[in-house]
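## retry 2 of 3
previous attempt timed out at serialization; input unchanged, resubmitting
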Amino acid sequence: MTDGDAHGAKDLLVVFGITGDLARKMTLRALYRLERRQLLDCRVIGVASTEMSTAQLVEHARTAVADSGETLDDAVFRRFADRLTYVHGDVLDDALYARIADEVGPGAKPLFYLEMPPALFGPIVEHLGAAGLLRDASVAVEKPFGHDLASARELNARLRALLDEDQLLRVDHFLGKEPVIELEYLRFANPALAGLWDRGSVSAVQITMAEDFGVEDRGKFYDAVGALRDVVQNHLLQVLALVAMEPPAGADADSLRDKKAELLKAVRAVDPAQCVRGQYDGYRQIPGVAHDSQTETFVALRLEIDNWRWAEVPFFLRAGKNMPVRATEVRLMLRRAPRLPFLPSPAQAERNQIVLRIDPDPGLRLQLVAQDGESWRPVHLDASFARDLGEPLEPYERLLHSALAGEHSLFTREDSVEESWRIVQPLIDAPPPLHSYQPGSLGPAEAQQLLHGHPGWHQPWTGSDGKQPGGPAGPGR
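## retry succeeded, writing output
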């Protein structure tokens, strides 16, 4: 392990995989936007195996930023282009690291961002260490962090042989989304919400991540991963931790990460009998997918938290592809009002709900009920974060800026990664059977059975006009 300064700001960004898909779609756009905001203050060295010059990398970056939908300002892009340098070579070749060392130079405090397959994390870090490049450095790695609990521990051990925990930044772009960050403030800075945020008021919690597209041209990659590993073990369990954790004791990164880890330790490992897996019709015809594939494109599960705040409150998580909408949300179902003689039957009224929409158009909804003649109707109090708070940093902007600034609260710590794998490991060891569902539906009908005795799955809140029905979705609709 190194004995340098892992905590301070970094003055150099080295991106391994600068010509890859992630850089083309996200990283180059994020760096350009940081330049536009005058928040980028370092050189950027791109590393890849493609033989090209720095001038060709600049043109590649221009095309990538324009193709991402970002409006190019020539003056901003020239400033960004002046920061770029390109180094090409094989990441398993010692000669590449000698060239990188020449570009980095003495006294630098680099951030190495590995936008590479996880199998290369260990070899790249070991080569960086052998070249003397890890002192005063941080290393950021993209998910997945292993493919099960054992492999996550093995990967951590290999990286930690050369890096302190404070040097290692595990990137989950979900943690850079504005509403995920706002969860901490919404919960603990607003007594009106904080007073409702426990088992006394909440009867159940639904967390949904619906995608309105299929696997498309990623069949070979996705068939080896599936919905559980792709989004539940990381994204949704990190959201669950933020929804359910206790308030951090301090403002430092580890105070927040301590509380997230504490919460995840209290989550029972999932019971395979409390999980429904689905696969949309037509998935097995996608190039790269096995003709008899047992990979899930939809998963729903029930989790329990063994602590005082959430005892006996079920957390229902679902994620799926080829669903009718694109939406990620957290929905707290509050307990029913008591039966009172001057009110219509409480059974006719919808429960109050608190809904945090993470994506798209992040916002907060309070669902109340009002009397409409002899019956009830829902009344929605909606807030749009973009409208009320202004344009936020995009996830990769925020994460790159935080990493370069030496601020680590938005990155996942080793203990949380391993706890997340522990929670889902029973489903990896003994996966439940697959159920088919139609593209454009909200998953297999069997997923409704998980919620027996609780409000059914609700249609995700989409749009910002407050007119989206708040009622539960029927099976497969």
